[in-house]
Amino acid sequence: LPKQPIARYLEFGLPELSQYPVNITGKRAPYLTALSCLAIDLPSKTIIYAKNPDYQLLPASTTKIMTALVSFNHYSLDQVIKIKRVNGIGQRMKLEKGEEIAVENLLYGLLVQSGNDAAYVLAESYPGGAEKFVEAMNVKARHLHLNSTHFANPAGIDAPNHFTTVHDLAILSAEAMKNPVFLKMVATTDIDVSDTTGEIKHSLTNINKLLGKVAGLKGIKTGWTENSGECLVSYTEREGQKIITVVLASEDRFGETEKLIEWVFANHEWEETTLH
């Protein structure tokens, strides 16, 4: 690989820097099959490692990070939605037609179980329906300056005009993590939720195999389709240092994310600095 600078900066609104990561060993990042990947220090937004960060790729279910953001902005958690129809494509939380369920439980289904049915219910219950919901997703993307991102649906189903980059996913994730409810949900390994009567139950299990395995890892979102390959956005915190990693089009999203995280923390120290 060509020699890369130790750090460069994303186009975020930067806080006053107090620390930034420095590779103290000189050891290069491990080889990753992922077509595109990124590791950033969350507080400073310093890029620690990048491989093809601006390739536009299929995001699969990492799309649901934006679906959750739009839902948090529009719905209250205790709002009840009646299921008019169920989208049965792909991964589901197994909603039932006629079921009445709180938005909070739909969001657990979206972020823990990665339910496409939850994504479509949230979108179709939006004023103007799914089309307006997706429009709101793209408006939010423009607001966050996700200049290489466009959404065609709320679930991450492959489509020609549905794409993002690891760079944009890192920005999107940093924004989503400002919401403590989002953080709690994506860190949840297992949870049982139900409809308003308590009679229809949904047992949800997080697809992220690294939760509880990698020290300090607190979620964020998995994704997979046959065309997108394996995708994973992760947030890890150790000894007060916080990083986001993103891998897209990987052959081993969990193994490669773990390698990338361990490389970051084993080979970097956070040094004090002041912006001038």
Structural notes for this entry:
The structure is a single chain. The protein has helices at residues 64-74, 103-111, 116-124, 129-143, 166-176, 180-186, 253-267, and strands spanning 8-9, 19-23, 36-41, 46-51, 80-82, 100-102, 190-194, 201-205, 217-225, 229-238, 241-250, 268-272. The mean pLDDT is 93. A hairpin with a 2-residue loop joins strand 10 and strand 11. Helix 2 crosses helix 3 and helix 3 crosses helix 4 (129-143). The strands form four sheets. It has a six-stranded antiparallel β-sheet with strand order 1-4-3-11-10-9, with helices on both faces. It is α+β, with helices and mostly antiparallel strands.
Q: Estimate what percentage of residues fall within beta strands.
A: 25-35%
How many runs of DSSP E, i.e. beta strands?
12
Strand order of the largest sheet: 1-4-3-11-10-9
Helix content: 25-40%
Given as residue ranges, the uncertain stretches (5+ residues, pLDDT < 50) are: none
Mean pLDDT: 93
Order of helices and strands: EEEEHEEHHHHHEEEEEHE
